[in-house]
Design a protein that fits this description.
Strand content: 35-45%
Structural class: mainly beta
Shape: globular
Number of strands: 5
CATH topology: Chitinase A, domain 3
Strand order of the largest sheet: 3-2-1-5-4
């Protein structure tokens, strides 16, 4: 377990709950966790995933480009929370 730090305010780091949206209006909401914590949870992604790596240090209203097997995908950061 990693404790929340006020230095994280407004940016995506380990443990963050993040909501993102694409140009088609599709939204996703998930928490960034360790790779051993994702099993059995549809709302958790591994810190090692391409999505989490692309989101690290981003802020609300930032655009994020994620490399996927289907090509590059663009997302917009709607919200970040830690509680």
């Amino acid at each position: 377990m990693v404790d929340y730090s006020p230095q994280q305010d407004g940016k995506v780091f380990f443990g963050a709950w993040v909501e993102i949206e694409n140009d088609e209006g599709e939204t996703k909401s998930f928490r960034i966790v360790g790779p051993d914590e994702i099993y059995g949870r549809n709302d958790y992604i591994s810190i090692d995933s391409p999505m989490a790596r692309a989101l690290l240090k981003k802020e609300v209203d930032d655009d994020v480009e994620v490399n996927t097997p289907a090509g590059k995908k663009e997302w917009f950061v709607n919200s970040i929370r830690y509680r």
